[in-house]
Amino acid sequence: MSKKTIHQWMRLLHRNVGYFAAGLIIIYALSGITLIYRDTDFLKTGREVHQTLAAQMKADDVGKALRLKKMKVVGEDEKVIRFQDGTYNKLTGEASYVVKELIFPFKQFASFHKRASGNSFHWFNLALGSTLLFLVISSFWMFKPNSKQFKKGAILVLGGVALALLLIFI
Questions:
Q1: What are the backbone dihedrals phi and psi of residue 57, each rounded to the nearest 5 degrees, phi first?
Q2: pLDDT cut 90: percent of the chain above it
Q3: Which of 110, 81, 76, 111 is nearest to 97 (CA)?
Q4: Element spanning 164, H or E
Q5: Rounded to an integer, what distance in angstroms lies between the CA atom of residue 132 and that of residue 14?
Q6: What is the model's pLDDT at position 139?
Q7: CA 68 distance to own-chain centroid
Q8: What does each C-alpha distance from 85 to 74, 153, 160 come to in angstroms?
Q9: Which residues contact 81 (CB under 8 A, 6 or more apart)?
Q10: Among 5, 14, 102, 167, whose Cα sits 20 to 30 Å from the Cα of 94?
Q11: Which residues, 6 or more positions from 30, have their beta carbon under 8 angstroms from its beta carbon?
């Protein structure tokens, strides 16, 4: 049995790791696409929330208490503050508003994509990122460095890096 070269090992690992990662990447890509439209109502449904706050609060304080970052007041009188998707009764402190959330399974996809280091499953996102980095690096061993395919691949990589940097810094 002959000894495998580094090129053969990398091709074998690249293929097997790539197939495994393909399923993970499909879900991760869907979650990323979903997050692009997080500032719209795309794939969202409304849920009505009722909450009691202190009476006689100002509009800014109501927004902070309800944790509504983009609360826009559309009207106010001596009894009620009306804001986009809700109301606050100054006399009773009752607030009613609609929260828009992603539908199933996109809500889960989005939380999968946005895991922070404090989340117990953050290691999975780290492993996925590392796997993608391995697939990129191992692809350079798919062809011999002096071959036409390798040179074309290197040019495409440089083009991709240039485009990404251009989009980041514009």
A1: -85, 155
A2: 33
A3: 81
A4: helix 148-169
A5: 10
A6: 85
A7: 20
A8: 10, 51, 42
A9: 59, 62, 73, 75, 87, 88, 90
A10: 102
A11: 106, 109
pLDDT of 4-51, one tens digit each? 888 888 888 888 888 888 888 888 888 888 888 888 889 999 999 999
Global pTM value: 0.62
Residue corresponding to tokens 């404090």: 118
Instruction: Please give the Cα distance from 97 to 49 (Å, whole number).
Output: 5
d(CA 41, CA 74): 19
Question: CB within 8 A of 84, min separation 6: which ones?
Answer: 71, 72, 74
State whether residue 108 is helix, strand or coil: helix
Give the amino acid at 150.
F
DSSP 8-state code for residue 2: P
Q: Which residue has the tokens 């939380």?
A: 111
Phi, psi of 87 (to 5 degrees): -140, 155
Apex 140 CA angle, 137 and 144, nearest 5: 155
